Every structure is written in C-alpha cells, then in structure tokens.
Amino acid sequence: MVTSMTLLNRLYSFSVLDALALGLLLISWFVFEWLVERTTARRLSVSVLMAQYRRDWLNEFVIRENRIFDANILGNLRQSTNFFASASMIAIGGALALIGNPERLLGVAQDLSLGSEPTVVWEIKLLFVVLFLANAFLKFVWSHRLFGYCAVVLASVPADPANPLAFSRAGKAAEINISAARSFNRGLRSLYFALGALAWLLGAVPLILATFLTLLMLWRREFGSNSRRVLLQDDS
After folding, report:
1. Is residue 1 part of a domain?
2. Per-residue DSSP letters for 178-233?
3. pLDDT (tens digit, 9 = 90+) per residue, 14-45?
4. Is residue 40 part of a domain?
5. How many Å separate Cα 75 from the centre of its chain?
6. Structural domain span for residue 70
C-alpha cells in the first residue's frame, strides 16, 4: 500500500503536458521507423535506396577477381557498429551512474535552476534516455553480428561466376547485409531520439521542441538530403 502511494506521489510530480510530450516522443519514434522502412516508389528513403546498392555491390562481388576490396568494406562496416555499440554502452553507464547518485543529480538540477523538482523526477527522465540508449546498443550489437554472418556467407561464394551457387549465395549475403544495415540505422535513430529525450530535463515544452527538431533532422536526411538526390539520379 505504501509502495503504491509512493508511486502515485511520484507520478503526480509530472504534469499532463509532461505526459503529452513523452507520448509525442515515443509515437514519433515508432511512426518514423515505419515511414523510413515502408516507403513507396514515390517516396523512397535513403535507407531503402541504399539497399539496392548493397545488392548491386554483392552481385559485382561475384565477378570481381580481387575480393580484398570487398572484405575491407565489410570490415569497416563492422568497425562502425562496434564503435557505436561501445559509445552507447559508455553513455548508458554514465546515465546510470548519475541516476544512482542523487546528490550529484540534485547539483545538476540546481545548476540548471530546476532544483525545485524532486530528484525522482530527474531519475525517471534520465531512465527514458537510458531506454533509448539501451535500444541503440542492442541494435548495434545485432548489426555487428549480422555483418559477421554476411562475411561468412561471402567467404562461401565460389570464385567461379559460372558456378550455380555463386549468385545465389551472393544474394543471401546481400539480404543479410541489408538486415544488418537496417538494424544499424535503427540504432542511429534511437541515439537521435535519446539526445532529444535529454531536453525533457529542461521541461515538457523543450522536449516537444526537441522532438520536432529531431524529426525534422531525420526527415531531411532520409527524404530531403543531397545524398538522396544523388542516389535517385539515373546512371545512364
């Protein structure tokens, strides 16, 4: 009973605007993921456009005599996932250390002139940042593993293009590569929203503004960037 009352008292520390701002952040995250990965022919995202280039790359891999170049590309992709996974883990550790140190947390609140809020409010707000970071970490780890699977499948592609297994296995490697890239992109977007969630520490209105800014930035990079225009250009 005491626990329930304590929980209610903690929830009462948040306003309706806080709930709306948090709901907007979470809905924006889910909806944008859906829009990026389920685009139509008239609205292709950079992620979807790059998927076809990955297929073309691994088709060329079959007929390329020197495959060191392809191995280097795959190695660089794995290094990127490893870097972001490590960075996410460090960020998670820092946030959890801050949550576990109420005095330091209260000191940060006072520095930002928000010392009137209970410490538990800051802890809950930081917890949502940790959730985004944890999701990013899991996505990067899975992406790293998928790129490893891709490397193994690539190694099994016969050196003779006339071999009936050559293009079939290259196609399998391409699809695994695309899945790895999709997971990597999800991890990156989760990091963007984690940064946006930090604005909640300043209040509900800053969180709403940060959510729209994050959406605008991600939308531009997926649907309005110069790189997308280049990818859409006809190669002929």
Report:
1. no
2. HHHHHHHHHHHHHHHHHHHHGGGGG-HHHHHHHHHHHHHHHHHHHHSSHHHHHHHS
3. 788 989 999 999 999 999 998 888 876 677 88
4. no
5. 20
6. 18-31+46-221
